[in-house]
Design a protein that fits this description.
By secondary structure, this protein is an alpha+beta fold. It is built from 9 helices and 13 strands.
């Protein structure tokens, strides 16, 4: 079990959030170790609780005397290492998860001044590299999209996990396509952009695929806004990989591998896009 934490409001508040279901879907933003931990949690003896935090922190406790004690212990363990607020995800055989609270837990967003001094990197709280690409509107880059929340998704039609999640990604995009201050950027990796677009078109999936100019069918480099380059593996260790950047270009969400529930990200995207880009 990995010890990380989340905040606890009140037991009555958590009970009011109980949702029917056995908790088969993994919590959002867990890495491979986290997903393994959640699988172990589901097999543990009652009473048990699982807690998560934005940024990937998580913890669980099992074989406790009461559900209340299990949740309090899981939250305490989680919060010890979490950068942001920890929240309850599952209790015994029930999923306890409030998407609106999850969205608010990512706050506070950095100001422009804070973002300017942030170190460049791929982790939550860091300033994402100034990746550049071309779309139907012309030349783009991360820095040129300041003021908008940006979802960057690295994928390829040759990638089975990428293929499987595209229909759910389309659902999220369809719901938020017209949202102000929000941009979706789908970046094909290791194949020609035309091939990626053809694959989507054949399946009736309508998503805005960007052109990175990277070589097809082999490892390559993406362009940066300053004319430099960055290796594709330096941005995406596995495929698919997803980042959500706030309105100042700071990484809010980073996921290596498939996202278990794309629609669960909708509240976060709405909340972040409504926040002022100070």
């Amino acid at each position: 079990m990995l010890m990380k934490t989340i905040t606890f409001t009140s037991w009555l508040g958590l009970v009011s959030l109980l949702l029917a279901g056995a908790g088969n879907a993994a919590p959002p933003q867990l890495d491979e170790r986290g997903r393994t931990g959640y699988a172990e949690f589901r097999q543990a003896a009652l009473h048990r609780a699982f807690a998560i935090s934005p940024g990937g922190a998580w913890s669980w406790r099992g074989e406790m005397e009461t559900p209340e004690l299990a949740m309090q212990a899981a939250l305490a363990d989680c919060q010890g290492l979490a950068r942001r607020t920890c929240l309850a995800y599952a209790l015994d055989n029930k999923v306890i998860f409030n998407q609106q609270e999850w969205a608010r837990a990512w706050r506070p967003y950095q100001t422009a001044a804070q973002a300017k001094s942030a170190v460049t990197g791929l982790k939550p709280g860091q300033r994402f590299p100034d990746l550049a690409w071309r779309d139907a509107g012309g030349e783009r880059s991360v820095s040129k999209l300041r003021g908008s929340v940006v979802l960057l998704h690295f994928w390829g039609s040759w990638c089975p996990p990428c293929q499987r999640e595209m229909p759910d990604l389309q659902k999220l995009y369809a719901r938020l396509e017209a949202a102000p201050n929000l941009r979706f950027v789908f970046l094909p990796v290791r194949e020609a952009t035309s091939k990626s677009r053809a694959w989507l078109r054949e399946r009736g999936i309508k998503l805005p695929v960007a052109d990175t100019g990277a070589p097809s069918d082999k490892a390559g480099a993406f362009k940066l806004g300053n004319g430099g380059q960055i290796a594709d593996r330096d941005l995406a260790r596995v495929f698919p990989t997803t980042y959500i950047l706030d309105r100042n270009g700071i990484v809010l969400f980073a996921q290596n591998g498939p996202v278990a529930d794309w629609l669960a990200l909708e509240p976060l995207l709405k909340d972040a896009s409504r926040a002022k880009a100070e």
